[in-house]
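Appendix B. Worked example

We walk through a single record from start to finish. Start with the input: the chain for LPXTG cell wall anchor domain-containing protein, Streptomyces fuscus, length 241.
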Amino acid sequence: MSSRRRTTIAGSLVAASISAVMILPFTAAADDEGPQSSKGGKAVDEAPAGVELTTTLPEKISVDNASEETAITATVKNEGTEDSGKIRLLVVGFEGLTVTNVQGCSEIAEGDLPEGSNSGFACALDNLAAGASKSYDVEATYDLSKKGRICLPVQTATGDKTFWQQGPVPFGTTNPSPNAPATPLLLGTDNQPVAPGGDELAETGAKRDVLPLGAAGAALIAAGAAGLWWSQFRRPVRQEN
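Next comes the structure step. The output line below is what the pipeline stores for this chain.
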């Protein structure tokens, strides 16, 4: 084999290796998600006869260690025998998990977010037929030095009733991998990041399990205790046309 040909082949192999390295950090996406789960979910207000609304989240997500970006699929289902009528799904982030966008949904104004949350989107559905489901692509960032939680309430269009609420449920890992391209996080697991000092865990998030919701007077039940988040927003979320 001539030296020129050897040089050409070697150059191709190096280029392929570089391409593979450049692609790896961006593989933390919805494609990595495993089965969906309703873990941390609970029925709250009674739904109309024949309507049974639930939500699911992926059992596993993957956070890019360089960009801190992740992708989550949030799904709302009507497992009943009757159509739902107008409803809305809320997607809200807490602590280290910040929701940056939900496809086809409207951002909740900062003043309308429940105490303790950092971000949220409202997804309006004109109707969810019996046996049907609707999935939303959720873009988020996750500060792996903190704990992180997400919450999915399903409400009437006006927010006066909450038929179902999943969370606030944590995503996390008990085995951080800071040197890897991405860190896998499991649903229902409190994140235990390694603090800068070594093996000491970072102290983040709320100090109490229950957070007040101001004028609404309702209780926010934190991770590990599924329950009513709020029965009504302080004021309705404006929907974008």
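Two observations about the output. The chain has a mean pLDDT of 77. The first strand starts at residue 36 and ends at 37.
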